[in-house]
Design a protein that fits this description.
By secondary structure, the chain is an alpha/beta fold. About 35% of the residues lie in helices and about 20% in strands. It has an eight-stranded mixed β-sheet, with helices on both faces. Helix 3 (about 115-135) crosses helix 11 (about 335-350), helix 5 (about 195-210) runs parallel beside helix 6 (about 230-235) and helix 7 (about 250-265) runs parallel beside helix 8 (about 295-300).
């Protein structure tokens, strides 16, 4: 037995009342194996006194069934959970899932400037189009967590302020997508000059104090990096997975890989890598690999996940973003739109939506 094999075995242990295991919830803080003894440290957030005892029993039963394990030591750190909002579901160690949201997926990148927000906007619109054809309109949400430089309102063509319903904000909607962004709450000429705790608090409020309604999927557009915003989201919203966006060049893929490792470290599944700006088509119809080739595939392989698709460097994507009409809306039959819809279809299938 090894540390990795212990964690792999613990994936069989589901958190009470959830279909998700204790490893993916991030409850396993450490796991070691030495001289026949498996030692596991768990950190649990719950107000139910039965849960720690039940988990301890299940973990011990699981580990004692593993070959080579003669003894099991389990350390439990239990903290009280805050009461969930009405209709909400308290997730262990990962905040509260807003009522009505079936799946949540982070759109992330390590490096800035790779077109992550453009990708998120077009993926959201593609998902809305496909779910609309199934008779499920208005069931896609997009949460813009780029607090310092929110660009989603511009790309979605949305202006104005969100309405207030009691203590909750109501997201604005366009192209079949419900949207919340810091860009709705501050003036264009007002910079957001905040330290980390304020950023973390805002992300928590976007999750817990926005009335999203019934959603099949909520996409979360994260800022670049692996800092406060990313960790706050993971602690606040149980994610079904993350999609990494990168361009082909090494300067982007090296940092994207670190972003992927961050998600793996906090037990968020990687759903795949999307390569943006993969090529430019010249006037003669030739594909020019302006930023190199193969970076997205190499990143996916190094992280043990799949390359979901390659988005070309196309003027209509930029024009659509600047004009508030994403390319899947403005040029629905074009090559770029087809790529986004292919990725959207793959995401729907993986999440079984």
């Amino acid at each position: 037995m090894t540390t990795d094999s212990i964690k792999e075995a613990l994936k069989q242990v589901k958190y009470p009342g959830f279909s998700r295991d204790i490893v993916s919830f991030g409850l396993v803080r450490s796991a070691t194996f030495d001289a026949g003894t498996a030692k596991v440290s768990l950190a649990i957030t719950t107000s139910d006194p039965k849960v720690p005892l039940l988990l301890k029993t299940e973990v011990e039963k699981c580990l004692r069934a593993q070959p080579g394990v003669a003894d099991v030591i389990i350390e439990l750190a239990v903290s009280a959970a805050k009461a969930p909002a009405a209709g909400g579901q308290s997730a262990p160690g990962a905040g509260t899932t807003p009522a009505g949201i079936k799946h949540s997926v982070a759109i992330a990148s390590g490096k800035g400037g790779v077109g992550k927000s453009t990708f998120a906007v077009n993926l959201a619109c593609a998902l809305a189009q496909m779910l609309g054809l199934r008779g499920r309109p208005g069931r896609v949400g997009l949460m813009d967590c780029d607090i310092y430089g929110p660009s989603v309102p511009l790309m979605m063509g949305i202006t104005g302020r969100p309405s207030v319903d009691g203590e909750s904000l109501l997201p604005l909607e366009r192209h079949g997508v419900k949207v919340m962004s810091m860009g709705f709450l501050v003036d264009d000429n007002t910079p957001v000059v905040w330290r980390g705790p304020m950023v973390m608090k805002t992300i928590q409020q976007f999750v817990q104090n926005v009335k999203w309604g019934e959603l099949d999927i909520l996409l979360v557009d994260l800022p670049p990096g692996t800092g406060d915003a990313q960790l706050s989201l993971v602690q606040t919203l149980p994610l079904d997975g993350a999609i990494l966006v990168t361009t082909p060049q090494v300067a982007a893929t090296n940092v994207a890989r670190k972003g992927g490792l961050m998600f793996q470290k906090v037990n968020v599944p990687l759903l795949g890598v999307a390569e943006n700006m993969s090529w430019l088509v010249d006037a003669a119809g030739h594909r020019l690999p302006i930023f190199g080739e193969g970076g997205g595939a190499a990143t996916a392989e190094s992280l043990g996940t799949d390359l979901l698709g390659q988005v070309p460097l196309a003027q209509e994507i930029r024009v659509g973003g600047d004009g508030g009409e994403p390319v899947v809306v403005s040029h629905p039959t074009g090559e770029s739109a087809q790529v986004f819809r292919t990725i959207a279809q793959e995401l729907l299938e993986r999440l079984k939506i």
